[in-house]
Amino acid sequence: MRRKPDPEQRRLELCDAAITLLAEDGIKGLSHRKVDRAAGVPDGTTSFNFRTLAALVHAVAARVAALDLEELTIATAASPAAGDGETSGVSGLARLIMRSSTGPPLIRSRARLELVLQSHRDVTLAEAFRHSGELFLALHRDVVLRLQPSGAEIEPAHIDEQAYVLQTFIGGLMTAIAHGDNTIESAEQLDGIMSAIVSGLSARR
Amino acid sequence: MRRKPDPEQRRLELCDAAITLLAEDGIKGLSHRKVDRAAGVPDGTTSFNFRTLAALVHAVAARVAALDLEELTIATAASPAAGDGETSGVSGLARLIMRSSTGPPLIRSRARLELVLQSHRDVTLAEAFRHSGELFLALHRDVVLRLQPSGAEIEPAHIDEQAYVLQTFIGGLMTAIAHGDNTIESAEQLDGIMSAIVSGLSARR
Fold first, then answer.
1. Domain residue spans in chain B?
2. Residue B186 phi/psi, 5° resolution?
3. Which of A121, B114, B150, B195 would you call most buried, defined as having the most Cβ atoms within 10 angstroms of its Cβ?
4. What pLDDT was estimated at residue A86?
């Protein structure tokens, strides 16, 4: 047993405290000092670990993306595979989105909004979310493929469009949920809406 | 002819400069001094007109909302009324969204994202966007009503759900466009997608 906290573990705890700060006070409210206080560590600990505010923000983004990846991996494994038919239960995607309405996933979702809004003026930030963003899109494509009417020919361009529309809707929904919207009440209801969107788009071809 | 700039006109010019700053540098990058420089006015002009940073942010939000209202009014007038049938041309909503991909509407859209992200911790900010938000929702309801299959009985709860889904999709799309996404190429294409979403949702009832 070590007496001193593991340095990597300490950095993760600082990042987690920073995620909560970001969610509550926004990017304007983030500082080394506030993270020290929120994490209950001696003054200077955060700036010792992350020399600049940019370094802190990048580490926080990496932490959010890593936690996102964990959840995305679970959601992907939980989704029925394409070909299982659309009656095989609630999608992992719908469960993932509904989970973002409370607790730590809601806090992380609010923090992610703050970080993503910065990402078009910070390539390192944009890069931090690249991998999880790709997995997130792949999860939408899986849902779209699973929802194709059986026997229909599948044209890649149509799948692309449907995945884009679905992902755009889900992006809007996650933002709305992060702002406190709770219009959609269950993963089943969300799956029904996603299914209707895809079937509406499929039908017009 | 006045020699001195009209005080109200001067404040609007400062707000417009602040909108561009917000879009480029985010809420973190906004300060009285930077607005003075961006507007090309003597140092101190912005802090004379808006004593606190909060007062400046609230004035900028009011300016964004006023410009939004102008565009929303045009978009509402341009949309065919319910009952005109769905072949009567491109919706004002689709045109409004596509216009947000370039020029001053894109800058305003980026600034609005920054402000809206603050609005859940600032009631005055939230209030600034209340009226335009209501008009924006009404515009979605008009599109949904216009797209109902003819002869179908219209249940208010279904209209509400369809308007919610459409607005959530459009919210995600405006955010994507503000971040540089240009997947959707025309108002006609966007109208086709909105029509498919509504018909998919209508069909499952």
1. 61-203
2. -150, 160
3. B114
4. 44
